[in-house]
Amino acid sequence: VQLVESGGGSVQSGGSLRLYCVVFGYTANSYSMGWFRQAPGKEREGVAAIDIDGSTKYADSVKGRFTISQDNARGTLYLQMNSLKPEDTGMYYCALAWNGGSWLDVGRYDGWGQGTQVTVSS
After folding, report:
1. Euclidean distance between CA atoms 59 and 66, whole angstroms
2. Within 10 Å of residue 40's Cβ, how many Cβ atoms?
3. Tell me, what's the pLDDT at 68?
4. Which of 24, 33, 55, 69 is deepest in the core (most CB within 10 A)?
5. What angle (nearest 5°) sits at the alpha carbon of residue 68, between those of residues 43 and 105?
6. Is the separation of the CB atoms in 110 and 94 below 8 Å?
C-alpha cells in the first residue's frame, strides 16, 4: 500500500489548510484511516480518524476546528483544518488500518504516508 499526503504549508494563526492523502493499491472502503501529527521532540499523536462505516473521531484539541472526510471513488482522505493555532504545527501523517482497535493506537496502523508539514505562526 502507498499513501501520499499533500496540502501542508505555512499559515498565520486563524488560517485554514486542507490536507490530502491518496491511497494507491487498495480498494476504498475496506479499511479505516486516520490523521496523526508529530511536533519536534514530541510523540506522534492522533488528530482524527474515520472508520469503514464512516463514523469519525477527533482529538479534543481539534474538535470543532478540523473535519476528516473521504472520497472513496477517488481513494482520497481529507483533513480540513480551520482556525489553526500555533500548537497545530507539526508533520501530519495519514495512516491506514485493516483491523479494529483504538484509533489512537499508532501500532494499529498498517501503512503510513511520508508526511506533510504544517506550520502555523502567531
Report:
1. 9
2. 7
3. 98
4. 33
5. 35
6. no
d(CA 122, CA 114) in angstroms, rounded, equals 26
> Judging by DSSP bridges, how do beta strands 90-97 and 32-38 pair with one another?
antiparallel
Record the cell numbers describing residue 31, joined without a space: 479499511
Task: Report the run of H or E that residue 45 belongs to, with start and end.
Answer: strand 45-50
Three cell numbers written together for 77: 482522505
3-state DSSP call for residue 84?
Answer: coil
In angstroms, the CA 35 to CA 122 distance is 23
What average pLDDT is seen over the chain? 94
**Per DSSP, what are the bridge partners of residue 57?**
49
Nearest residue to 48 via CA among 35, 37, 39: 35
Residue 31's pLDDT is what? 87
pLDDT digits (tens, 9 = 90+) for 9-22: 999 999 999 999 99
Q: How far, CA to CA in Å, does 110 sit from each of 9, 60, 85, 89, 115? A: 26, 24, 30, 25, 15
Say whether pLDDT at 28 is over 60: no
